Amino acid sequence: MTAVSAGRQGSGEPVVRQVTEDLVLVEVGGRKVLAAAVCPHRGGRLKYGRVDGDRLRITCPLHHTTFDLTNGERTSGAACAALRVVDVLPGQDRPEELAGGAS
User: Beta partners for 59?
Assistant: First the structure.
């Protein structure tokens, strides 16, 4: 896993950018994932999360809950709802709407 830096966009390192108050854009390995900006566990700000580009997962900086960025499912950490994933591009199908609904 690597810490996310907004200034390393061309280096192949994962980048997480806040795009609206409610959404972040995660760019890693040629993929772009639009997801909720806060962790459903306790509201940790995911723009400061760690991204595992090999597994396409993000870990909340607050309590270390980890989510799969392809479908939002919690893979480890505190029990909570799935992370809302709005879209995964390119080369990925649009994720099914998760509990809590995608907008």
Answer: 50, 66
